[in-house]
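Lab notes, practical 5.
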Amino acid sequence: MYEPIRSKSVHSTMAGTTSDFPHRTREEELDIQLAGHLAALLAVTDELRALAPSADLDAAAERLAEQVTRLRGGLVRAAPSGADRDLTALHQRAHPLAGRALVVAASRADTAVAILAAERMDAHAAALEPRELASH
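Output from the prediction step:
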């Protein structure tokens, strides 16, 4: 009723060629992911600093830059675009970025980054509180 398979499966052929491309360890993947979240958070922090300069944002940007440099081995930092001039929207973007960084930092047991991300989450949440209360 069924004809037997005469050639090797595509899946078994692909599974046998694992040496064709490099594999990363779980830790390397988490480092890449964490560096990406922190770089995105740094970009939003720089936008906030351009609109509303503060010592807290300056210190946060410096700490974020240090961590991205440590994880990536270097740092490419874009100048603030000024495209988003809404502080509330920037804080709303930054809060979940810090949350994602916190989750990845916790999964890779990076205490320094976890603390930094939690502090940034708190700071962005605090910046949003008065605006949210006023709108209700």
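Observations recorded by the TA: Residues 132-136 have pLDDT under 50 and may be disordered. The radius of gyration is 21 Å.
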